[in-house]
Amino acid sequence: MTYPYSEIDEAITYIHQNINETLSLTQLANHVAYSPYHFTRIFKERVGLSPLYYVSSLRLQKAKELLLRTDLSVRDIGLEIGQQSLGTFTSRFTERVGMSPSQFRNSVLQAEDHFQSLKSLSNWRTSNPAETRLARIEGTVQSELPFQGVILIGLFPKPIPEGPPNYGTLLPSLGNFCFKNVKPGIYYLMATSVSWGMQSTDILLPYNTLRARLKEPIIVDPHTSVLHRTVTLHTPRMDDPPILISLPLLMNNFLKRVRQYSNR
Asked: Rg (Cα) of the chain, in Å, rounded?
């Protein structure tokens, strides 16, 4: 498959190779012989994010890995990704991953517990709210590859899966999904998968999970219906934004809703 602005692949490769260095917009644009303005425009059209936001996202992804794979202190990890202030690093990590760096480092056992609970789940219903005048967003999840596991899908406020989604759910298989009572706004539909054979660390660092996203935002207003959307899970691509939100956190939120429904 040919993607528009293939030169962006070269820029993304350069970013990955130099992620430990100071990277300016001018430097990135010069690497592919574009003006900063033109480079930003086509990078955002291809990836969905501005170049420097993409860089900061990759650095937070690196911080997640350092937290799980090294004994470096949280402060040193912040410095490693260019954050001089421990407070700034902690607040940004918490906002975009959904938990503090220390909580993320200590979440391996919790991730395994949530994953095992999903495996044994027999009732996947969470709620059946009364119909309102708010929007319904329905669609179908497909996959390019055979897949057995759970699918996490959500409507996010930005074109990157960071922070808890505005609306999110888990699916036990490929097929249809529905978000009810969606308030007016602009949303980005994204999904990823967790196969039943994955280990906890692979769930916390989802580099290789199948994923899908609609590049065009879903615009919901009080006076229009939202058309059926279809997304296809695929292997990671160079221009996919990193998955920053903690997947076990989303699993736990879903399990809590299932338990609340079951207790009614």
From this structure: 19
- Residue 9 one-letter amino acid: D
Residue 112 contacts by C-beta under 8 Å, 6 or more apart in sequence? Answer: 200
Instruction: Report CA torsion sign: 188, 161, 4, 209.
Output: negative
Beta bridge partners of 188: 156
The pair phi, psi for residue 231, each rounded to 5°, is -125, 150
In the sheet with 175-182, reading across from the earlier edge strand, the strands are 175-182, 135-143, 229-233
pTM of structure: 0.92
Q: What is the pLDDT of residues 114-127, one digit of tens each?
A: 999 999 988 888 87
Contact predicate 184/222, CB 8 Å: yes
Distance CA 210, CA 205 (A): 13
Amino acid at 2: T
Spatial contact of 168 and 250, defined as CB atoms under 8 Å apart: yes
For the segment 69-75, the average pLDDT, to the nearest whole number, is 97
Q: Which residues pair with 178 in a beta bridge?
A: 138
Q: Among residues 214, 165, 217, 211, which one has the least CA distance to residue 187?
A: 217
Structure tokens at 169: 């759910």
> d(Cα 152, Cα 239) in Å, to the nearest integer?
20
Phi, psi of 168 (to 5 degrees): -150, 155
- Rounded alpha-carbon distances, angstroms, from residue 159 to 54, 149, 188, 241, 264: 11, 24, 6, 8, 36
Task: Reduce the DSSP state of residue 137 to 3 states and report it.
Answer: strand
